[in-house]
Amino acid sequence: MGFETMKAILALEDGTIFHGRAFTGHGETVGEMVFNTSMSGYQEILTDPSYCGQMVTMTYPLIGSYGVNEEDVESDRIQVRALFVKEYQEYPSNYRSERSLADYLKANGIPGVEGIDTRALTRHIRVQGAMKAALSTGDLDPDALVEKARHAPDMAGRDLVKEVTCDEPVLWQNGRPVRVEGGLDHFQWSEKSGRFRVVAIDYGVKYNILRSLEERGCTVLVLPAGTKSESINRLDPDGLFLSNGPGDPAAVPYAVEAIQGQIGRRPIFGICLGHQLLGLALGGKSFKLKFGHRGGNQPVKDLKTGKVEITSQNHGFCVDMESLKDPDIELSHINLNDRTLEGLVHRKLPIFSVQYHPEASPGPHDASYLFDRFIGLMRRD
Amino acid sequence: MPKRTDINKILIIGSGPIVIGQACEFDYSGTQACKALMEEGYEIVLVNSNPATIMTDPETAHRTYIEPITPEIVTKIVERERPHAILPTLGGQTGLNTAIGVAETGILEDLNVEMIGASIPVIHKAEDREQFRDAMTRIGLRVPESGIVRDMDQAKTVAEQIGYPVIIRASFTLGGFGSGVAYNREEMERIAKTGLDASMISEIIMEESLLGWKEYELEVMRDFSDNVVIICSIENFDPMGVHTGDSITVAPAQTLSDREYQLMRDAAIAIMREIGVETGGSNVQFAIHPDTGEMVVIEMNPRVSRSSALASKATGFPIAKIAAKLAVGYTLDEIPNDITRETLASFEPTIDYCVVKIPRWTFEKFAGAEDLLTTSMKSVGESMAIGRTFKEALQKAVRSLEIGRFGLGADAPSSLRHHSDLHQIEKGLIQPNSNRLFHVHEAFEQGFPLKKIHDLSGIDPWFLFHIYQLQIMERQLRDIAKGGLVPDELDKDFLKRIKEYGFSDIQLAKIFDSSEQRIREIRKSKGVEPVYKSVDTCAAEFEAYTPYYYSTYEQENEIHASGRKKVVILGGGPNRIGQGIEFDYCCVQASMALKEMGVESIMVNSNPETVSTDYDTSDRLYFEPLTREDVLNIVEQEKPEGVIVQFGGQTPLNIAVPLRDAGVTILGTSPDSIDRAEDRERFQRLLKKLDILQPENGIATDKDDALRVADRIGYPVVVRPSFVLGGRAMEIVYDRKDLEFYMKAAVRVSPGKPILIDSFLEAATEIDVDAISDGIDTVVAGIMEHIEEAGIHSGDSACVLPPISLSPEILEQIKEQTKAIARELNVIGLMNIQYAVKGGVVYILEVNPRGSRTVPFVSKATGVSVAKLATRVIMGERVKDLGIATDITPAHISVKESVFPFSRFPGVDPILGPEMKSTGEVMGIDQSFGLAFAKSQLGAGQRLPLSGRVFISVKDDDKMTMLYTASRFHSLGFEVLATKGTSRFLAHHRIPNRVVNKVREGRPHVVDMIKNGEIDLIVNTTSNKKTVAESFSIRSAALAFNIPYTTTLAGATATALAVESMIEGELSVKTIQEYHRN
């Protein structure tokens, strides 16, 4: 006698197996297995393009409690490959909830699995490092699934940006993306629009970055990751924003090249992958963290003020501090947990970037002052 | 910023006795703070009147004052100690209020003493309604609309401004009398009028109704560099309208999306900054409208609190310890996180489990109190449980409550089932009460739709759905059982699923009509066993070094039992009347002793308020229910040398025999010896053998039996059910009619259990003895003489150590009997005996072969760590090798006084009797009995008058003895007021007095005089139910107007002595380290 449930198996490339139950119907997928320690914000996490190619387990065991709504999205679709939780909450309760998490995942064709010992999974990843994994509700042969995990593409060296960047220029208006009619060739900054003209390179940008810029009076033109430096020059924006995005910065040399062309031309602000790409453009190197930083409680110290901000983070790669030899590059922020680089600033040029997410969503708002700093640089310039 | 070096000596103010709303969480916080600051090299001066605390152990601070926590006394300590700083934020509201009182004297400026943690303006800003409202408005936050009203015209205007419904609360009434919710103008006028009449100062507060809004709390910390972090979010199961201390609460918040949570976080941080809390922890409460998300700020406490203790236990982040370090100048990024070692305190804990706290109420102790929950807190304790799901944590918390439940549903026999009467269920959902959780379960069982339950109770559907799931599972299991399936046939995965839902083996046994043991065997044979996970502040992102565990049913077990010699200590579970902090004190002492002996100590407890559940206290902490199933699981995991059950009070004793039968070694006194002391007949044989006297007694299981026994031994008799703690349902019965009445009720309280009937030794002196024994040698650690005569529960009586009225012969006899019993019972460890002495004869009342409520008091009075020594004996040391004197009689006098929660329960008679009602205790130490007793009264909140009027009304038997007391008051310059009978008697004996009307004798009467402030002290003894009823209004008026009163003549005599001592000279202060040195 027992429950009628749809069994699911998660196989890691090292042969470790976890058993669970699908709460979204059948599905099979592969990806890199990572964990996120935020206790809230699953909808933002699901839709964050930086998770492209990854399967996410939430360390908080009860997920789905407040449902899903139209507002709390960070892109136009679910980006994670699969979601693993301890116990799916099938009865959401929140005044903004419009539908259940299960419905949302199903509508996007993304498997959701519950009944996983997510703490064991997290501990495993912490000790062994982030690794490739395969999930199946149909193929319940563990050995075969481990093979599938092993054959999944690696994160390192893989250009995932091209999978999430926009195909064509987009203008961010009134909280939503609007296609630029006729493409860049006919684009004109509107005289009426905001005081600052910002080009945001989309490596997988989160909507809340664009919302944060717009709120501060910026007109934001979002351009594909492959945009060349000359194209930016033609637009002559007041500032250049380098967005977050998935995967290995070293796998996106074309972006680094474009950034190098922009250094010294205008204020630049980078976040996450944008920060890493800027680091590479400034002569630095990146490396893969053992299991990354993903959560909303990462303490970052501003080395100039000595103040600590609690930050939202989501990255698996990091810029090597030692590799930044240019004496004009100042390390501005460090992570207090593992002392890795969290921010840099150019001593002479109006350029700065952070590894973490001042736009939050999900996570604390402690670092939102960085957007004001960017505005300040554009104002001065 | 590193720590400050410009200050060295710091005064910490404790919270005093355990009262409702201020319990042992402040011992936990205070002890942490003392330890942390001592580690940093500061000299710590501590004041706390509560001897039952670890905080007042002589090792916890450099200089410890067990003195009343009043501004006057603390000012004296400041004058004597000249500290550089006062840290007032660790002693609850008492600590803050006392610090303000001290500051107002101006002495802090005169002596250049700094307040650290929170300044006076900050405290005022947070606590003054107007100032707080203005502050919130400045930062764009809203507080509930409210206004203070003194007449009906004002009431109409204010009600119009606020809108309906409006909450009306009468100021200065007991327990919310004269309050209510008005939904329209007519109701408002009626309630406002009642409220204005009920209020002693004719004042009501009218407030915007937030009934049904969702309630949240955030625990916030800030340092000197303005770094602010949120330690924990808490969501209340009960919506607004129930005091948060009376609400079931859950961590973290469940039904807030990240966007909403971050707005609340931003608000909390803004509030910290606006109020100006420079360093330390604060608690901010919010209400959220369930349909619109509108947020209002309810209040903020600029200090550690009950919630911060809960948050510390829920996350593993030691708020009080960090708050103390921040107060001396450290910043969060300079303090390491003990648990992960490699990371710092400047982060926000994230948890990967669900925490549920359920309050523990004791309405049954207060006849006449209505089981209703309001904005005035009534619970006396709480249990907390950790699980990987809400359902698991909820069921674990329920079975931790010690209320005879083993989860939610399936466990109770049908007689305990609540109501199948739908109207009763609805009522139980609408009006918050101590059983509402069970009403919700019952409502699902009766087929109420979720929405209806939500509409009636206001409880968020998220919580309700989980209870619904539990009910569905229970129903499914019942169907399976009905279908003839035996538990052996349960599918392994399904069984695991059931356990993931938090069901206990006992619940399953009830459903399948099997036994707990059988279910356990089946479960184990299928490999369905718990695993243990650690509480690590970081959801496993970093390695945890602190072994703080909870059980769950999942894949991976994180426990690696060490190969060391180890011992499990079972704690006492939630505080309730009769079992409180004293037992936790003993458990913590035991743990320390084990550590000193190099034995690994493993603590099991479910009470989040305690020092024992600080992960720092023992080598390992299991935050688990104290049931057979949960304890056996831990024992199987850890394989200890044995389990110590004698320190945690009745809770662990109750499972001692089942544990032994399951093959667990019980260390110390054997369960059989415990049984010999508790089993009536075996105990009598033992006394007979030793030739020790006992009051005449008998045993009865029904009414006729009882009447026969009472006739044989003669009235009055003391009656009580066997195997209860705190004198539950214990009464003195004077005649047949009362006995019949009692038996009817008793059979309801514990059906089938025998009732014990003893001859009541009227006017006998009661004695408490604590002793340590190894079965051969015994040390009498303390002999305490009760101030109140026999018949008042020993936990409620004041007592003095050493005894002041017993002859050396009697004392010798008591010692000899104690030793004889210890040897006969082969007591290994602690033992407590209660004696009564009447007419030079010693009678034994009861023997408890375990740690007692008085152990901490004895330890503080004598300077001997009784529980620690007992632990060494339990571990095999001989008493004669402990190196303590065989006779420990200090030169100073120590008085223990009890503290009562009557003001929380309007309508309850604050008279003392054989059923225990006190929640806590204070201690007064000095050179004379008068001074020590005076201090104990002051510590307990009774401000004895030095002049004025004393009102005396005593029963006939007391009149002779009363003469002495009355003449004493007279010669001290008091005017003596008396009721007719007493007055005539006094006059006859030439004691001048004035007659005052009894209430039924016409006005103005004694209660009028109390209300007019014309009486300063009340002595009122009663003989039977009639006089008790007649004088009820006197006692409640005294309580309401905070006039010192005593209901025993012995208490009156002691009071006279105390007043005399205080008139002769001012109270002085001295540390216990100084007392113990002498």
Explain what this protein looks like in three dimensions.
The complex is a heterodimer of chains A (381) and B (1078). Chain A is an alpha/beta fold and 381 residues long. Chain A has helices at residues 42-46, 101-107, 118-128, 142-150, 161-164, 207-215, 229-235, 253-262, 273-281, 369-380, and strands spanning 6-12, 17-22, 28-36, 54-58, 62-63, 82-84, 87-88, 112-114, 131-136, 170-173, 176-179, 196-202, 218-224, 239-242, 268-271, 286-302, 308-319, 329-335, 341-346, 351-354. Chain A has an eleven-stranded mixed beta sheet with strand order 11-10-13-12-14-15-20-19-18-16-17, sandwiched between helices. Chain A has a seven-stranded mixed β-barrel with strand order 1-2-8-6-4-3-9. Chain A has a two-stranded parallel ribbon with strand order 5-7. The longest helix of chain A has 12 residues, at 369-380. Chain B has 37 helices and 39 strands. In chain B, strands 14-13-10-11-12-15-16 form a seven-stranded antiparallel beta sheet, with helices on both faces. In chain B, strands 17-18-21-20-19-22-23 form a seven-stranded mixed beta sheet, with helices on both faces.
Q: SSE layout and pairings?
A:
The complex is a heterodimer of chains A (381) and B (1078).
Chain A: E1 6-12, E2 17-22, E3 28-36, H1 42-46, E4 54-58, E5 62-63, E6 82-84, E7 87-88, H2 101-107, E8 112-114, H3 118-128, E9 131-136, H4 142-150, H5 161-164, E10 170-173, E11 176-179, E12 196-202, H6 207-215, E13 218-224, H7 229-235, E14 239-242, H8 253-262, E15 268-271, H9 273-281, E16 286-302, E17 308-319, E18 329-335, E19 341-346, E20 351-354, H10 369-380
Parallel strand pairs in A: 3-4, 4-6, 5-7, 6-8, 12-13, 12-14, 14-15, 15-20
Antiparallel strand pairs in A: 1-2, 1-9, 2-8, 3-9, 10-11, 10-13, 16-17, 16-18, 18-19, 19-20
Helix pairs in contact in A: 7-8, 8-9
Chain B: E1 9-13, H1 25-39, E2 43-47, E3 63-65, H2 71-81, E4 85-87, H3 92-104, H4 107-110, E5 114-115, H5 120-127, H6 129-138, E6 146-149, H7 152-162, E7 166-170, E8 180-182, H8 185-198, E9 204-208, E10 214-222, E11 228-236, E12 249-251, H9 258-275, E13 280-288, E14 295-301, H10 306-315, H11 319-327, E15 354-360, E16 381-387, H12 390-400, H13 422-430, H14 436-445, H15 450-457, H16 461-482, H17 492-500, H18 505-511, H19 516-525, E17 531-534, E18 548-552, E19 566-570, H20 581-596, E20 600-605, E21 620-623, H21 628-638, E22 642-644, H22 650-654, H23 656-661, E23 666-667, H24 671-678, H25 680-690, E24 697-700, H26 703-713, E25 717-721, E26 731-733, H27 736-749, E27 755-759, E28 765-773, E29 778-786, E30 799-801, H28 808-825, E31 829-838, E32 841-848, H29 855-862, H30 866-874, E33 893-899, E34 920-926, H31 929-939, E35 949-953, H32 959-971, E36 975-978, H33 980-988, E37 994-995, H34 1006-1011, E38 1017-1020, H35 1025-1040, E39 1045-1046, H36 1049-1064, H37 1072-1077
Parallel strand pairs in B: 1-2, 1-4, 2-3, 4-5, 18-21, 19-20, 19-22, 20-21, 22-23, 35-36, 35-38, 36-37, 38-39
Antiparallel strand pairs in B: 6-9, 7-8, 7-9, 10-11, 10-13, 11-12, 12-15, 13-14, 15-16, 17-18, 24-27, 25-26, 25-27, 28-29, 28-31, 29-30, 30-33, 31-32, 33-34
Helix pairs in contact in B: 1-11, 2-3, 5-6, 7-8, 13-14, 14-16, 15-16, 18-19, 20-30, 24-25, 26-27, 31-36, 32-36
